Amino acid sequence: MPRAGLGSASVTEAAATLADEIGFDQLSMGLLAERLGVKTPSLYKHVDNLADLTHRIAVLAMVELGDAVRDATQGRAGSDALAAAAQAMRAYVKEHPGRYAAGNSAEPTGPDDPLIPAATRLLGSLSAVLRGYQLQPSEEVHALRMLRSMLHGFATIEVSGGFQFDTDVDESFTWMVNLIDHGLQSLSQTDR
Amino acid sequence: MPRAGLGSASVTEAAATLADEIGFDQLSMGLLAERLGVKTPSLYKHVDNLADLTHRIAVLAMVELGDAVRDATQGRAGSDALAAAAQAMRAYVKEHPGRYAAGNSAEPTGPDDPLIPAATRLLGSLSAVLRGYQLQPSEEVHALRMLRSMLHGFATIEVSGGFQFDTDVDESFTWMVNLIDHGLQSLSQTDR
DNA sequence: AGGGTTGGCTAAGTAGATTAGCTTTTTACC
DNA sequence: GGTAAAAAGCTAATCTACTTAGCCAACCCT
Fold first, then answer.
1. Can you tell me the distance from the alpha carbon of B140 to that of B162, in angstroms, rounded to the nearest whole number?
2. Size of interface A-B (CB pairs under 8 A)
């Protein structure tokens, strides 16, 4: 019996891709094994169990999303950076809905969980975008929470097919980002 | 053997309460049966299966949330109505996280699904709130999508424990709602 | 009182996750 | 090149949760 050449990383990657295709909640050890041309118990040589697998997908998602936002905002500032970050995040969720869902369902398992730095890095990138608006320090956390809420909410509703009307969703998204942009600009300390 | 006096409605209600307590994804037929003092198979006299049960919870959640938003906005308009609707929605999700999660995971099963009118009614209440801002008709859908995204995103992140910093979450919420309020006011047709 | 319906139960079937234990391949080192 | 340990696959078996079948008691209605 020849070997399949698997490893924790390749199994996680395959699972993430499968989750994107069939939906995170449909992911199972059996389906993943079939996809990899292997019997189900063999997966346990590379991953502790299903919870461990989904956690690894979550970490992967956070790292990738952090990279995407960072790359998109490189060399941009203010409104440009905000629009780029928002579009990058939305694009990632649309392309990788299963990974993103895994990321949302994950809880840190301990103080050394790699999920923590990954999430921190993503938040840092969003913070950097907001820094361009020169908000009062006391308002920075509020603005960050608002930005996260809006992007997360929009992306998850969109991916779940929740926007019914046939009005263009792209248009709604840029409209929303613009509204936030104007709101943040009006709070900018340089305006006062 | 005495009877437990159950019915579809009371089983659904108990399941919803249990989901709020232990988390929607921890809900199981076994735990629900135990809670009701009954053996697992007995539940199938009142509900088709687990999918049916969660769907009923989803409908219940949408109806309750629709009621809550409607009640909160009664007799209010403009900024007051927005703030009331937002607080009502956030309060509902905090009090009933399991029900709300069920609502999010639900898909209509057909054209006669009671989930559809329930969801429509909720969206209608939010639309009514926005109507007070006298937006251009072409912008109404965008504003509704933004409002939904923000409220849904904030509530789900908060309930999942995603807001880490110790800055007061209430404050962030009202800050966010205020920002949106100002943004919508500046778009009001009466201003131009 | 008595027949039909309802709602509970036990027993059994199914699917998915997981563990145990065996065998083969690969690797590392002599 | 040869061999022993580690790694990676497999089959078989276990456990848990959902679900179905079929039985019997309790309730309702006249």
1. 30
2. 99
